[in-house]
Amino acid sequence: MQKQIPVITIFAPTACGKTALATRFFGKSSLSRFKGMGELISADSQAVYQKMNIGTAKADESTKRELPHHMIDLLTPDIQFGAGEFVTRADSYVQEIWSRGRFPLLVGGTGFYIRNFLLGLSKAPESNLQIRSKIKERMTVEGNKKLYYELKSVDPVYAKRIHINDEYRIIRALEVYYSTGKALSSYGENDQLRSQYDFATIILTRDRKELYERIDQRVEEMFKEGLPEEVQKLVKEGYDFNSPGMKAIGYSEFFDSQSGVLRNDLENIKNEIKHHSHRYAKRQYTFMRDIPGAVTIHADDEDTFCRVLENFCSKYMSMKQNFPNHPLPGEGL
What we know:
By secondary structure, the chain is of the alpha/beta class. Strand 2, helix 2 (61-66) and strand 3 form a beta-alpha-beta unit. Helix 5 crosses helix 6 (144-154) and helix 9 (208-225) crosses helix 11 (266-284). The protein has a six-stranded parallel beta sheet with strand order 3-2-4-1-5-6, with helices on both faces. It has helices at 18-26, 61-66, 83-99, 111-119, 129-142, 144-154, 156-161, 167-180, 208-225, 227-236, 266-284, 302-314, 319-322, and strands at 5-11, 38-42, 69-70, 103-108, 197-205, 295-298. The chain contains 13 helices and six strands.
């Protein structure tokens, strides 16, 4: 009989310190007895895009050597990527990582993706291509702002969860509404964790003021590292405001919302990125409400963080005797 695969999920908004904590526990230079025994699957909706490095705060090469990363640099910025593909790919990575005798670590700040992975995909109806095509045409002519406020009037619950520039989800939600007459948020989701996995779910928190200060500091660092130049380079390569990857916070602000032309008022752009990042961080926590078994820990409470992981991982140190053909986590590293 197939046993559950352990999956450690660490959720926190950007700049909270989640990757650093995961690395301190599982990194190859860690002082933990579980050092070198984890591999990270990024749950960041924009890290999947190639050439978008600074604005997505991807891990540097040193961090990736310490803790292997997956689900990054998969696609060019002109390709749409959604929760369904995320769950499918994450399932595959989890199987591969555990087969190597390491713990799969789902780490990120895209609460929508993590929730779908933990509980399973939404029960919403399949796509109605005819209606979807008409809404996409309207999006091109009328713009995302007008359709976002239209969504807000018919499905305020879902509209509150997404960003005004998230054309993909705006179109999907309006498509469901005009196809069925029901709000996308009204479709039920599973309230139980997916049974094939044994989850340890940690939600990291910080005082809001402190979190916003850390976000602001990170944005300042991004500009010093060359974020404006990164955006200009992407535009020269043919990506623009309509490219799915460029809809992300940290990139969309560089474009005029009406014309799509690149802006050059960098100080205003920087302040907009900070403001949008604050709102996004707050909104992502709503996706993590009511997750069965989730433990909330302050991001600076490293002792509790390590104790939770120690207790969870220790259960699997006997895997060798239970499954003789399965490598013990940590063997052969």
